[in-house]
């Protein structure tokens, strides 16, 4: 029975992905054609987006590892780089190595009712 349930979920996810794909393609084309230049002052902001809790350890680790590897590969040329963490998991991982680079941490972002949040802003 579990096998049938998982097949159904996979089929539904695949169907939803096909519906959403045109939106992703539009965004991809937009950014390919955007005239974006690297800043001349050398400042850089890295944003790590993870959850506050949950069973997504591999995702949290992957996000933190990507930022860690990027910063360590620069070999000391990171004085103008800052990190913003959205989610407690990214903060917990990155704070150990780069506490001096963390400038802002947002947690419980999804705890607000979206309808109420929109009305307040």
From TrEMBL:
Pfam families, sorted: ATP-synt
Keyword Membrane: yes
Keywords, ordered alphabetically: ATP synthesis, CF(1), Hydrogen ion transport, Ion transport, Membrane, Transport
Keyword 4Fe-4S: no
Listed GO CC annotations: proton-transporting ATP synthase complex
Cited SUPFAM superfamilies: ATP synthase (F1-ATPase), gamma subunit (SSF52943)
UniProt xrefs under Gene3D superfamilies: 3.40.1380.10
InterPro entries, sorted: ATP_synth_F1_ATPase_gsu, ATP_synth_F1_gsu
Membrane topology, from the record: Peripheral membrane protein
GO MF terms, alphabetically ordered: proton-transporting ATP synthase activity, rotational mechanism
Transmembrane segments: none
Subcellular location field: Membrane
Role of this protein: Produces ATP from ADP in the presence of a proton gradient across the membrane. The gamma chain is believed to be important in regulating ATPase activity and the flow of protons through the CF(0) complex.
Sequence similarity: Belongs to the ATPase gamma chain family.
Record-given protein name: F0F1 ATP synthase subunit gamma
Organism: Micavibrio aeruginosavorus
């Amino acid at each position: 029975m579990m096998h049938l349930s998982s097949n159904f979920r996979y089929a539904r996810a695949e169907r939803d992905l096909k519906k959403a794909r045109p939106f992703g393609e539009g965004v991809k084309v937009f950014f390919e054609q955007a005239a974006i230049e690297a800043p001349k002052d050398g400042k850089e902001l890295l944003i790590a987006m993870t959850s506050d809790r949950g069973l997504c350890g591999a995702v949290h680790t992957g996000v933190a590892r990507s930022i860690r590897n990027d910063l360590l590969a620069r070999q000391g040329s990171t004085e103008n780089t800052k990190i913003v963490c959205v989610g407690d998991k990214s903060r917990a991982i990155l704070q150990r190595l780069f506490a001096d680079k963390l400038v802002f941490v947002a947690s419980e972002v999804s705890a607000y009712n979206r309808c109420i949040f929109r009305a307040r802003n």
